[in-house]
Amino acid sequence: MEIQPGILVKSKAGRDKGHVYAVVNVDEKHVYVADGAERPLRHMKRKNRKHLQPILKVRINGTPDDAAIREIIRQYQED
Hints:
By secondary structure, the protein is an alpha+beta fold. 16% of the residues lie in helices and 37% in strands.
């Protein structure tokens, strides 16, 4: 599965292991993620692609804000 903007991912490595993020932007080597709370859109986290596991259940359409990202992550974690 290719990591694309708008999907949720789970961190597999690092201090944030197990944390769920929304993919905001992708370049050749890194993925920029945010969770809307600890990592808002203005302070996105840069992660290596191989340290992320895609979550196929949820996809964000359009350009979300921090509140929308928090809500989608909360809904996913409740399931």
